[in-house]
Amino acid sequence: MSKTAESVWNNCLAFIEDNISSQAYKTWFEPIKAVKLTDNALSIQVPSKFFYEWLEEHYVKILKVALTKELGATAKLVYIIRMENTYGNKQPFTEKIPSANRSNLQSQEVDVPLKNKSPELKNPFVIPGIRNVKIESQLNPNYNFESFLEGESNRLARSAGLAVANKPGGTSFNPLLIFGGVGLGKTHLGHAIGVDIKDKYPEKTVLYISAEKFTQQYIESVKKNNRNDFIHFYQIIDVLIVDDIQLLSGKAGTQDVFFHIFNHLHQNGKQVILTSDKAPVDMIDIEQRLLSRFKWGLSAELNHPDYDTRVAIIKNKLYRDGVEMPEDIVEFLANNIKTNIRELEGAIISLIAHSSFNKKEITIDLARKIVDNYVKHTKREVSIDYIQKVVSDYFQMDVDTLQSKTRKRHIVQARQLAMFFAKKFTKASLASIGSQIGQRDHATVLHACKTVDNLSSTDKQFRKYVEDLSKKLTL
Ligand code: ADP
Ligand code: MG
């Protein structure tokens, strides 16, 4: 019997169903339709670009195994992204080829060769004739300059990156050190420079590596007794991009080897690009001689994006995903997630996922729920120390007074409030709260919480204390 798209896919599904949770199977595999089988390529239709990305990220391995079982080693998988027009009556954004037989649908075919998508850097040291080895750049093509939106917060870093990409090794920005907080685009910008250089100078050897992986490779090379090969490998690179360089702190051996590599590259006019979550002056446990080299070139900071940039980033993401979202929701997101672009993107993805699975429109209520989740998870937990400090300040006493054994009414109240908020805002047990607030036992803390509850419903002045303090603690 000859194979059809459907029969092949059904066999794949049977295999996949046996190997993943039934929830995951329902969510991610049931909605897929097999569309056609040509040669050894199976085309499957998925409901959205988000869906496709999710499959790629989480299930590409099992898909590969299943499909190879069915079609042999040359199997290929083609995704057809079907975008239904569910967001208002505007046409969804599409990048391509409407599928011929269904004119009311937009689709997008993505050809995915079933090979390892992000090949590990092959242990370069065991390959003889190292100079002829083609080095995989490890760059993510989606992290490019075009998708890296410009704003006040990143202007310097972005233009320095562009300058370096135009003339790698030929500007005074060597090394270029990009620093800034979590989720502000360091990794993206690092890749973008590499991608642009690869584009303009295909013959140049570009390598992106995280400091973490660099460290692992180094340790491995020491174990295997080929430290020199390791150094040699890195010295033949034209453009070296090392991400999260702060992770070298405290690792003397790795710093030492990096120092040698850096010097060699720099002396030979090769470009080095570094990222870090701290400015050089704030890096700790990094050798002075290395730190001073970090400062040779340019240090450019990525700051928190301003409101307009946040809006632009949201809209760009929506546009690329082919999703429409009402303006007020875009504004709501931009107003509520300010300090981390990754969180901003995460919230958008959740919103799209929720609305497309539940076939619901994206509403401000849904947005609020999702933002709450995001912001709550990532907000640092207030500590009991901090609570005691805020409460003492509020009542103009010091923390020692608040913790003291005195039975003076206003001090007792302050202490009880501190216990109440510790219970409310931290995950600490009653016993642990008691021991941190003046060595009391858990019964005392429980009593304090009840007292605060009672008083705030009977005493107006007291309720004001609770409200004021609540605000201060959640700011
Ligand atoms: P970091 O390495 O600083 O923690 P990333 O480079 O991983 O941050 O960025 C987090 C996310 O935010 C990525 O998905 C990235 O594409 C996105 N991002 C950051 N800056 C921008 C920007 N200026 N324009 C568009 N997307 C951005
Ligand atoms: Mg990063």
TrEMBL record:
<dbReference type="InterPro" id="IPR010921">
    <property type="entry name" value="Trp_repressor/repl_initiator"/>
</dbReference>
<dbReference type="Pfam" id="PF00308">
    <property type="entry name" value="Bac_DnaA"/>
</dbReference>
<comment type="subunit">
    <text>Oligomerizes as a right-handed, spiral filament on DNA at oriC.</text>
</comment>
<dbReference type="InterPro" id="IPR013317">
    <property type="entry name" value="DnaA_dom"/>
</dbReference>
<comment type="function">
    <text>Plays an essential role in the initiation and regulation of chromosomal replication. ATP-DnaA binds to the origin of replication (oriC) to initiate formation of the DNA replication initiation complex once per cell cycle. Binds the DnaA box (a 9 base pair repeat at the origin) and separates the double-stranded (ds)DNA. Forms a right-handed helical filament on oriC DNA; dsDNA binds to the exterior of the filament while single-stranded (ss)DNA is stabiized in the filament's interior.</text>
</comment>
<dbReference type="Pfam" id="PF08299">
    <property type="entry name" value="Bac_DnaA_C"/>
</dbReference>
<comment type="similarity">
    <text>Belongs to the DnaA family.</text>
</comment>
<keyword id="KW-0235">DNA replication</keyword>
<dbReference type="InterPro" id="IPR024633">
    <property type="entry name" value="DnaA_N_dom"/>
</dbReference>
<feature type="region of interest" description="Domain IV, binds dsDNA">
    <location>
        <begin position="356"/>
        <end position="475"/>
    </location>
</feature>
<feature type="binding site">
    <location>
        <position position="185"/>
    </location>
    <ligand>
        <name>ATP</name>
    </ligand>
</feature>
<dbReference type="InterPro" id="IPR013159">
    <property type="entry name" value="DnaA_C"/>
</dbReference>
<feature type="domain" description="AAA+ ATPase">
    <location>
        <begin position="172"/>
        <end position="300"/>
    </location>
</feature>
<dbReference type="InterPro" id="IPR001957">
    <property type="entry name" value="Chromosome_initiator_DnaA"/>
</dbReference>
<dbReference type="InterPro" id="IPR038454">
    <property type="entry name" value="DnaA_N_sf"/>
</dbReference>
<feature type="region of interest" description="Domain I, interacts with DnaA modulators">
    <location>
        <begin position="1"/>
        <end position="97"/>
    </location>
</feature>
<dbReference type="InterPro" id="IPR003593">
    <property type="entry name" value="AAA+_ATPase"/>
</dbReference>
<keyword id="KW-0446">Lipid-binding</keyword>
<dbReference type="InterPro" id="IPR020591">
    <property type="entry name" value="Chromosome_initiator_DnaA-like"/>
</dbReference>
<dbReference type="InterPro" id="IPR018312">
    <property type="entry name" value="Chromosome_initiator_DnaA_CS"/>
</dbReference>
<keyword id="KW-0238">DNA-binding</keyword>
<keyword id="KW-0963">Cytoplasm</keyword>
<feature type="binding site">
    <location>
        <position position="187"/>
    </location>
    <ligand>
        <name>ATP</name>
    </ligand>
</feature>
<feature type="binding site">
    <location>
        <position position="186"/>
    </location>
    <ligand>
        <name>ATP</name>
    </ligand>
</feature>
<keyword id="KW-0067">ATP-binding</keyword>
<dbReference type="Pfam" id="PF11638">
    <property type="entry name" value="DnaA_N"/>
</dbReference>
<dbReference type="InterPro" id="IPR027417">
    <property type="entry name" value="P-loop_NTPase"/>
</dbReference>
<protein>
    <recommendedName>
        <fullName>Chromosomal replication initiator protein DnaA</fullName>
    </recommendedName>
</protein>
<feature type="binding site">
    <location>
        <position position="183"/>
    </location>
    <ligand>
        <name>ATP</name>
    </ligand>
</feature>
<feature type="domain" description="Chromosomal replication initiator DnaA C-terminal">
    <location>
        <begin position="383"/>
        <end position="452"/>
    </location>
</feature>
<keyword id="KW-0547">Nucleotide-binding</keyword>
